[in-house]
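Supplementary Text 2. Reproducibility record for the structural model of the 435-residue chain.

All settings were left at their defaults, and a single model was retained for analysis rather than an ensemble. We include the record here because the model underlies the residue-level annotations in Supplementary Table 4.
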Amino acid sequence: MKTKLFFLLFILSGTTLAQDFLKSPNPWHRIRKERIQQLLPDAMRTAGVEAWIVICRENYNDPLASFIGGENASGTAAYLLFLRDNSVRSVAISPSGEAVALKDIGLHDTVIVIERGANLWQSALKQIQQFNPSKIAVNSSMRTIADGLTYTQRTQMEKEFGAEISQRLLSSGELVLSWLSRKLPEEIEIMRQAALLTDQLEREAYAIVVPGTTTDADVGRFLKKRMKDLGVEDGWAADQNPNVNSGPDRGHSHATDRVIQPGDVIQTDFGIKVFGIWVTDIQRFAYVLRKGETSAPPEIQRYWENAKRGHRLVLASMRPGVRGYDADKVQRDWLKQQGSLPIMWGTGHPVGYWAHDIGPALSGGQTDRPPVGDAARLLQTGQVFAYDGFFCWPIEYGGEKTTKTISVEEMAVITGKGAQYLVPPQEELILIRVK
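Retained model, structure tokens:
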């Protein structure tokens, strides 16, 4: 009893702090400069490049514009980052007008002002010739985040740069993954506060449920209102956040008008975005008590304990140098041992600037094939993951055989010693009583 009271007080006090923290000035402009200074040099060395060019423009901007100060581009502008020893030298080339704002934010070492309509490519070429990098990353990639350079711009760039310089161009995909997948300690603390708030909002939402009356969509509308009250945004596509599901498995979807009934296991998959930059992704599960019940039935409790145990086993396996595949495989082996039905989804994914961020994937173990792609990548310190503890069992719904899955989702950060939850994980099913 004392433990539960302590945890409740921790959550309530932590939520107050999280709400107060949202009133603080947006730290993004300062943090992104620190990211360039502290994390980009190592990312460039890892990717084997000495320069990176990002082209920004109006109406159809590069996905990474806000990371390098190009979010206000009107006329086409170029941002060049050159690796020198253990630091990055940044040069912004911008038409007059926007260049004033670029100088004001102080993100770049040099801001070169060109007349509107002047040849941007020749100005960029002069900088490349001065620094003379052997390999130059550009945003052409199979990764959408690193695919901001249009075909027309790529063609024009190569024409203006000439064959010799163009041969040095390569995809920025590896650079972007290495740079964005790691978060600074201050960013992790921001995400911790946001995760604490996310957890509390989901618990508040379950408190409004009246079995036999409240629908999944009602719970979703409550969370939308609380988001508006607090001034936070959706962690992913607005029409799928939150995903409240008291029925059979539906995957990523919207909340429906299904009426919540006694005996239901309710899943709420919910995320918020704070300061317009950092997002969360957390699931909380509840059980609706039937008449005469004071706890979940033994089989539901067993499913819950199995899912929770799988989650803890994955956490124990996560540390720098471990493949994402291996962390996923730990849970697959546990599920098979405990008699769960197969799970199609990966155990987890990076989270941070997007709900499905860039970095190693905790997946691949659901097949017998060797790990490939992001599942084969090694975990690194400073990476944050949202990942599930699974258990799946057969049910009948509407006269058809289907499944129900517990997928309790927490957020964890990789440290030098292993992995740590950002906030205390859900230990017990939230119980909803008939009112």
